[in-house]
């Protein structure tokens, strides 16, 4: 099952990386397309502006040419009829012509060819205007016949032809520029479509590749799901079998611990009994040494006196201390063994009340050590074994009072929270703390951490962990040296009796 889960996790990781890669490629393509489209759009706008400029120049040239033609037509009408309306029209066209020429000069200021052409056009127009002004002045003086003779002899037709040719040359130059600018604009449009086509192709490739990747991952996922389904069909049987094996192994370990502890106690009792007899026998021997020293001191040596008065009592004391320690260890092992064989009896528990009882049971110890214990309320509901929970809390609270930081008033806080179907009970203190390297070893049997200045054999936390396991939970610690410690007991909110125990 772990192999299938590993393959699923690996497949998900690889699929995520590939899919993210394709998404990044797609977004990069879209970004590049957007930038290219913006650049091409600017180019198109640039070329469109110049195309419009060309049209404006053509309009300005045509307007100036039209004004010249209209001015000539009005002048001839005035010379032939003498009507003032033609004279007024002639003056209007003559007045508008300089502005039209200035407009052409303004629009073609960036083109040296057109600047030169407009200069020549101005010269021809100025000569034509001067000739027209002379003939018109004669007509204004009432000399109509003389004006007609002067009109017949003037060269305005030739000058008009030159002006028309000059305007045509300027229009031809603008049409040439228009063709170039139209070509550049068409090239920009083609470039835009090419960019769109390339971007569409890249996006299509990314989409197809992503689709193929998703399909492949889906097939792998379906295959893994089938394998997982087959495994799950036999998982319950495997779990039941392994749980049974573990239960039998645990029972064997508990029986072994009980037998070993029981068998060790027999020789230990003998050693303790003989030690007591030896201690009793040492007293008459010491009295005898005192009598001999008083009545016949020459019979005693210094070694005899030291052996009777110091070495023998000291050896007996060491033996007695060691046997007492051995007795405590054996009793602890027996308690652990008996606790492992005790039937768990779940019932609704008032955690706050249990915490209050645990504190009250060692109130004299708490007061002697100058500590303050706070039980935070409310606490969540819990269905578990009352005796086991009481023993766990009692051990944790007593430990917290043992390892306070010298010079700092002890503060112990007991709290509990609900996390889905679990209840987490925390016992926090501000004591001396635990080295992070010892966070796991302190739960081992006969293992302790830090300075060993408090009584104990290193059994309490091992007992707590064993009880937590039996209740279907775990226990851990968070601590740093000098910063206190927080023990967290994680239990199921409702303890479920194992099936084999329920069947029994």
Automatic annotation (TrEMBL):
What GO MF annotations does this protein's record show?
phosphorelay response regulator activity; phosphorelay sensor kinase activity; protein kinase activator activity
User: What positions belong to coiled-coil segments?
Assistant: 221-252
Record's CDD domains? HisKA, HK9-like_sensor
What's its catalytic activity?
ATP + protein L-histidine = ADP + protein N-phospho-L-histidine
Q: List keywords of the entry alphabetically.
A: Coiled coil, Kinase, Membrane, Phosphoprotein, Transferase, Transmembrane, Transmembrane helix
- SUPFAM superfamilies per record: ATPase domain of HSP90 chaperone/DNA topoisomerase II/histidine kinase, Homodimeric domain of signal transducing histidine kinase
- Residue intervals of the Histidine kinase domain: 259-495
**Which EC number(s) are documented for this chain?**
2.7.13.3
Pfam families assigned to the protein according to its UniProt record, in alphabetical order: CHASE3, HATPase_c, HisKA
Q: Which InterPro entries match?
A: BphY/WalK/GraS-like, CHASE3, HATPase_C_sf, HATPase_dom, His_kinase_dom, HisK_dim/P_dom, HisK_dim/P_sf, Sig_transdc_His_kin-like_C
Residue ranges of the TM segments: 191-215
**What Gene Ontology biological process does one annotation of this record name?**
osmosensory signaling via phosphorelay pathway
Against PANTHER family, the record matches this protein to: BACTERIOPHYTOCHROME, TWO-COMPONENT HISTIDINE KINASE
**What is the protein named?**
histidine kinase
Species for this entry: Sphingomonas aerophila
């Amino acid at each position: 099952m772990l192999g299938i889960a590993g393959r699923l996790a690996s497949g998900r990781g690889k699929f995520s990386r590939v899919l993210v890669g394709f998404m990044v490629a797609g977004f990069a393509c879209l970004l590049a397309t957007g930038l290219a489209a913006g650049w091409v759009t600017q180019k198109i706008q640039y070329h469109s502006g110049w195309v419009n400029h060309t049209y404006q120049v053509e309009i300005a040239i045509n307007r100036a040419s039209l004004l010249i033609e209209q001015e000539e037509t009005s002048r001839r009408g005035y010379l032939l009829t003498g009507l003032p309306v033609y004279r007024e029209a002639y003056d209007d066209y003559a007045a508008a012509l300089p502005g039209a020429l200035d407009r052409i000069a303004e629009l073609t200021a960036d083109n040296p060819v057109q600047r030169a052409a407009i200069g020549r056009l101005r010269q021809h127009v100025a000569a034509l205007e001067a000739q027209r002004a002379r003939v018109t002045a004669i007509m204004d003086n009432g000399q109509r016949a003389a004006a007609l003779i002067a009109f017949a002899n003037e060269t305005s037709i030739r000058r008009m032809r030159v002006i028309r040719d000059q305007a045509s040359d300027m229009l031809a130059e603008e049409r040439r520029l228009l063709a170039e600018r139209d070509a550049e604009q068409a090239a920009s449009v083609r470039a835009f479509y090419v960019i769109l086509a390339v971007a569409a192709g890249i996006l299509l490739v990314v989409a197809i590749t992503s689709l193929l990747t998703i399909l492949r991952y889906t097939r792998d996922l379906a295959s893994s799901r089938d394998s997982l389904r087959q495994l799950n069909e036999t998982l319950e049987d495997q779990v039941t079998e392994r749980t049974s094996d573990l239960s039998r192994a645990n029972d064997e370990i508990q029986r072994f611990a009980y037998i070993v502890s029981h068998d060790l106690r027999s020789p230990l009792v003998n050693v303790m009994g003989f030690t007591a007899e030896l201690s009793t026998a040492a007293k008459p021997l010491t009295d005898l040494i005192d009598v001999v020293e008083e009545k016949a001191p020459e019979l005693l040596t210094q070694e005899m006196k030291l052996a009777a008065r110091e070495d023998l009592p000291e050896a007996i004391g060491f033996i007695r201390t060691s046997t007492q320690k051995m007795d405590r260890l054996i009793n602890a092992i027996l308690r652990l063994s008996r606790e492992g064989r005790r039937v768990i009896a779940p019932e609704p528990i008032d955690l706050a009340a249990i915490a209050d009882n645990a504190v009250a049971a060692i109130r004299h110890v708490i007061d002697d050590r100058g500590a303050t214990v706070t039980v935070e309320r409310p606490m969540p509901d819990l269905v578990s074994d009352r005796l086991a929970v009481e023993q766990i809390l009692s051990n944790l609270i007593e430990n917290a009072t043992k390892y306070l930081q010298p010079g700092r008033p002890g503060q112990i806080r007991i709290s509990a929270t609900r996390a889905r179907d679990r209840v987490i009970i925390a016992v926090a203190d501000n004591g001396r703390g635990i080295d992070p390297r010892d966070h796991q070893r302190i739960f081992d049997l006969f293992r302790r951490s830090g300075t060993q200045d408090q009584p104990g054999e290193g059994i309490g936390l091992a007992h707590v962990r064993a009880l937590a396991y039996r209740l279907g939970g775990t226990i851990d610690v968070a601590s740093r040296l000098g910063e206190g410690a927080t023990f967290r007991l994680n239990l199921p909110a409702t303890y479920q009796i194992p099936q084999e125990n329920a069947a029994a």
